[in-house]
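Why should sequence recovery work at all? Because a backbone constrains its sequence more than one might expect. Tight turns favour small or flexible residues, buried strands favour hydrophobic ones, and helices have their own preferences. The token representation captures these environments compactly. In the example below, the structure is given first.
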């Protein structure tokens, strides 16, 4: 997909930062819509979802966390990036648990932001070469379709974000094998965008919560203390 066809929403109340992001994205060929508060953003984006959203957590009238909840409810596959202050670790982790795919901490470079945007949009493309040739993966009651980014457990649909899907796929493709957080980072962020262990933990927590929602007895996603995570196709 050409970047010219891709629409990015920037929601940031600091005008200087908002305009800097919008300018950099437009120079890269994206169509940009920018908003200074969450309520205005939702009024527009709720009617026509963008291809990617960049949300500041502390925007007025509707904060970035609530806006993320609403956007995620409207589209599980929509790539969402949070912009947050370095000291706001709680909000950053909460944002990932609500459904953000990634985050950047202020102050950040436009090069860093652009790398994350490009990586997420590349991963979101259903025509990506890495997905077009892949067949559905079955591990016990779990079925993952990489081409459609769809997930089912015991026949029930499980709505995962793009990052969650890639993490679960990395675990399910080799049931019983422990994957370290570094290995999971490589699988979920193949473009080598830097993320922390806490980011992986937050995504796994959300994946487990979604699977428990369709099956309260779900116990196939297991943490291995000091090592990482594994998926058990046939848990005891």
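From this structural description, the recovered sequence reads:
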């Amino acid at each position: 997909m050409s970047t010219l066809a891709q629409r990015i929403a920037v929601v940031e109340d600091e005008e200087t930062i908002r305009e800097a992001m919008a300018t950099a994205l437009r120079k890269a060929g994206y169509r940009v819509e920018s908003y200074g508060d969450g309520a205005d953003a939702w009024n527009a984006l709720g009617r026509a979802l963008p291809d990617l959203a960049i949300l500041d957590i502390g925007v007025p009238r509707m904060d970035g966390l609530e806006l993320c909840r609403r956007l995620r409810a409207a589209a599980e596959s929509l790539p969402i990036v949070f912009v947050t202050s370095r000291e706001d670790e709680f909000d950053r982790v909460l944002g990932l648990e609500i459904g953000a795919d990634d985050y950047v901490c202020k102050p950040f470079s436009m090069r860093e932001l652009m790398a994350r945007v490009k990586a997420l949009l590349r991963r979101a493309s259903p025509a990506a070469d890495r997905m077009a040739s892949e067949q559905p993966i079955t591990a016990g009651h779990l079925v993952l379709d990489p081409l459609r980014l769809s997930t089912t457990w015991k026949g029930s649909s499980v709505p995962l974000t793009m990052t969650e899907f890639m993490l679960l796929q990395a675990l399910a493709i080799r049931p019983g094998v422990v994957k370290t957080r570094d290995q999971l980072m490589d699988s979920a962020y193949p473009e080598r965008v830097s993320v922390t262990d806490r980011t992986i933990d937050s995504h796994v927590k959300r994946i487990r919560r979604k699977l428990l929602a369709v099956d309260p007895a779900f116990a196939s996603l297991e943490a291995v203390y000091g090592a990482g995570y594994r998926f058990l196709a046939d848990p005891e």
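A few observations help interpret the result. The chain is about 40% helix and 20% strand.
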